[in-house]
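Protocol step 4 of 5: obtain the predicted structure for the target chain.
Materials: sequence only (see below). No template structures provided, no constraints applied. The aim of this step is simply to have a reference model before the mutagenesis design in step 5. Sequence pasted as it appears in the construct record:
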Amino acid sequence: MCKYGYVRVSSKDQNPERQLEALLKYGVAEKDIYTDKVSGKDFNRPRYKALIRKMSRGDILVVKSIDRLGRNYEEIIDQWRYLCRKKGIDIEVIEFPLLNTNQTRDGLTGTFISDITLQILAYLAQTEREFIKQRQSEGIAIAKAKGIRFGAKRIETPECFENSYTLWKAGQISSRKAAELSGMSHSTFYRRCSELDKEQNICFK
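Step 4 output (structure tokens):
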């Protein structure tokens, strides 16, 4: 019997350290911990697949929380049943020991309670993620309604821009020289010129 750990974060921007630390404290050897950094869109988990192929009947898979097994309710339930019933793998959930499948169960009653608990928790995990996304969308909508802009902060146009713009339009200096005098990058300078021309309803190439 071998004990393995699995860590998943939904993107490369998220830090897996909390999950790794929990697994190490739980007694899983670092060499036996498999980590995936995947997007919610693709959900391609090469390390998870490699781990499951390696595990044999009687081995133990440790996860910090049940939502590491899937993106939604259906995936969590499907993976749980596949691992436990088809592969014969035991699962231990650090945050909810009641789900640990290698505990001594009181016959069918214990198994029934475990299955019901799993379905409730998997449903709650998915619902919480949906609530978080909803709150984020609502927060963004409220912020936009108040005039708050998202993304990179717009570079302020320097006072000398219009003078450089006038010289460039008159053909006295190049656009790159005008950008340099304005203290702006060439692309930013040209973008500001385009915006100013649109305001003045002037067309130029």
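Step 4 remarks: Helices lie at 17-26, 46-54, 73-86, 107-145, 161-169, 175-182, 186-199. The radius of gyration is 28 Å.
Proceed to step 5.
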